[in-house]
Design brief:
The protein has six helices and eight strands; from the N terminus they run ααββααββββαββα. With 195 residues, it is of the alpha+beta class.
């Protein structure tokens, strides 16, 4: 087992401005928690307390049903790459026969709404394989129905293999910027074509 532990000290602004920290973080595989810009902070008119309401997401999240919009927007409010995640959903959700779904919890019964608090499942309608991608709005991580290979590594250098979870979904990427967005869309297209 290999364990890497790095500790950086400084204010969020100092860490965001540090080229050395940025280069080190980009070299790490997998999900990385990075400092995000200061959230939108407002005074609660009822109590005069300062409350962090995150970033306001304008408009609807593409492909998400009305019943899940508020839940997904609340998750995106604290995702520093919310716009890139929305762009991913808009592009992948526009492909032929793609539907965006929440999940049915174990206690789900006919007529209950789907749960959008965990992840969004992108599925090709009529496919017997289930979803081709599972997207987490809060972090920007997307798991694909792909096996990691040299081809995948070349196509998406920021993608990483998963050792746990469902055996069919072993490639992930975290959408953090335009570069990782393009890589995520390339992986989504491969997974879509395979289903």
């Amino acid at each position: 087992m290999k364990l890497t532990y790095l500790r950086f000290e400084g204010t969020p602004e100092e860490l965001d401005a540090s080229e050395v920290v940025r280069e080190l973080v980009q070299q790490l595989p997998g999900t990385v928690d990075t400092a995000r810009p200061t959230p939108r902070v407002v005074a609660d008119p009822d109590s005069d307390d300062v409350v962090d309401f995150g970033w306001q997401v304008e408009g609807d999240v593409p492909g998400v049903a009305d019943e899940g919009q508020e839940t997904v927007k609340a998750q995106l409010a604290f995702n520093p790459a919310a716009q890139q995640f929305i762009d991913f959903m808009a592009e992948a959700g526009s492909w032929e026969s793609v539907g965006v779904h929440g999940i049915k919890r174990k206690t789900w019964q006919e007529g209950d709404p789907l749960d959008y608090s965990g992840y969004l499942r992108l599925r090709r309608k009529g496919s017997q394989f289930g979803g081709f991608a599972y997207a987490f709005a809060s972090t920007g991580v997307v798991n694909f129905r792909l096996q990691h290979s040299d081809e995948i590594a070349e196509l998406a250098p920021n993608a990483y293999p998963l050792a746990t979870g469902h055996r069919r979904y072993r490639v992930s990427i975290q959408i953090r910027d335009e570069t990782t967005l393009k890589q995520a869309l390339a992986l989504a297209e491969l997974a879509y074509d395979a289903t």
